[in-house]
Each structure stands twice: as structure tokens, then as C-alpha cells.
What we know:
With about 325 residues, this protein is an alpha/beta fold. The chain contains eleven helices and eleven strands. The termini are far apart.
Amino acid sequence: MRTLAFLAALIAAVAAQAKAVQAQDYPVRTIKIVVPYPAGGPTDLVGRTIADVLTKAVKQTVVVENKSGAGGTIGSDSVAKAAPDGYTLLLGLMGPMSIAPKIATRLPYDPLNDFVPVRLVAIMPEVLVARASLGLRSLKEVVDYGKANPGKLSIASAGNGSLPHLAAELLKRETGIDALHVPYRGAAPAVNDLLGGQVDLMFGDGPVVIPQIVGKLLVPVVLASDKRLPVLSDVPTSAEAGFPSVRSENWYGVLAPKGTPRPIIDALDKAIASALADPKIDEIFSKQGVYIVKDGTPESFGKFLAAQLGHWGNLAKDVGAKMD
Length: 324
């Protein structure tokens, strides 16, 4: 028994030493960031911007692999099951990490136990926009109209269980208005119908609605945040409008598979912090309605993940949201 125990301890020591050596040399080859949504969308924009600036910081190529499907859960699961060596990372975000775990029938991963948080990178507040012909230009006007005309307002979303859907449900709950939720299969058809006058309102990510706002095709009602965006400097926040609890922000962060050695996590955290200090990323993100999270640690990101899962996941469950 003593011999077996000694051998087990020796094997563990050798494995730990091998991991330490591996972490010390990291990275020595291409790093892959899995973006769990298709190319061309807001999530892809964030992922590719981070990959570009991170390439300089780590002095190795960082590439993006788009692995979409099932509301972002397929790509997320692929990283959960990847080798924990720091060469396959996940761009995590609200849908697959904070909403799907509470409403998916069978989720093949646990967002809190199958990943190691590296760093929270960026926040993208939702913008409530209205069709121009609606005539409502502030959150107060929307709330007053909604209360005076129960059930007459319609709010489009990018789909059941999406953040725009839950943002709409949060708006209804916190303001007391009665409005019809109209789910679409994606943001593009929802915006098209909003422009066409088939629906009245919609919460959308900056990259989706900012071009329509700038073109004066849609009216920005409120920014669902407590911090204004430079690109929408004239649009008040929900806090300024008197409804601070109407806060809906997508988030983006980098995660690694469970078991990734702490020295590698620390190296990645340091490299990402350095990359985010590049003025280029500030300029790119600012134009898209995204702001960088410049302070943080893996531990603070872990606490953030748990809090987001509790808040949004439980809201999704409470309103009976389903994954499309």
C-alpha cells in the first residue's frame, strides 16, 4: 500500500512539474478563440477585434473559429470539452452562459463548473428603439402610452430566450406596462419589420441598431444602462430616465476549459489586459456601442458569471422563455 501511495504521489508530482513547464513556455503556437455565433454579427466583431490585438500581446497568432448553433451552446460545449492547455478559448457571452443554462432542456455543460474564467472584456448595452412613425421618443412617453393603452404596444426581439426578449420582459415588469412580445428568428428580420411598421419597439445591440439611428430610420428611446455611450451621447440611460432597474447589457469575456493551469490563466489575463489598453480597440468598440472593461481579475469575472446566471437565468425561467 505504501508503494502504491508513493507511486501515486510521484506521478502527481511529475504531472504537476510538466504542467508548470508547459505554462512557463506558453504560448508556443496558435491560440484559437471559439466564437459560438456566425461570422459577421456583433459577437464575431468582438471576437475578431480581441484576436487581432491579442496576437500582438502574446506574439503568437490568435485566430477565431466560428462554431454556431443551438443559441451558442454548441460552440461553448466544444470548448468545455477541449484540452485544458490554453490553446482553445471561448468568447463567452450572455446567451449560452447566463440564459441557456436555465431554460435549455439538456445543456451538455455547466457554465460555472466546466470553464475557468479568464477575464471580462466588454459590455454592450441594449438600446430600446422605436419605429419613427410611433411618435414616442422617451422612456417616459413609452411607459405613459403603454399604461394608457394596455396591450397595444408590440416589442420585437431576436428570438425567444434572447437578451432582447428578456430586456423587453424586464421593461414590462419594472414599468408595469402591458406590451406584446413578438419573437423573430434573428435581429435582422426583427429590424426589417420594425422599419416596415409591423412592430413598435425593439431592444437591440449597438451594431444592429446604431446605423438605423444614425440614418434617422429608428428613434433611440433609451440606453438600458447606467453609463452613456459616446456614439449615442444624446441618448439618456435608463437610470437617467428614472428606471435604473431597466438595465440590460450583453457581456463578453474569455474563458478556458476546466483544468487549465493557473499560470496559463494568469498569463492570458495579463495579455488580455495589455491588449485592451491598445487605443485601436477603444476606437473600434466605441463606434459599435461597446465599452471595454479595463479592471478585473479571473476571480471577479467568476463572481460576475454567477451573478449574471442568477439574474438573467432566473428571469428567463420566470417568464417561461424557451430556446428557439
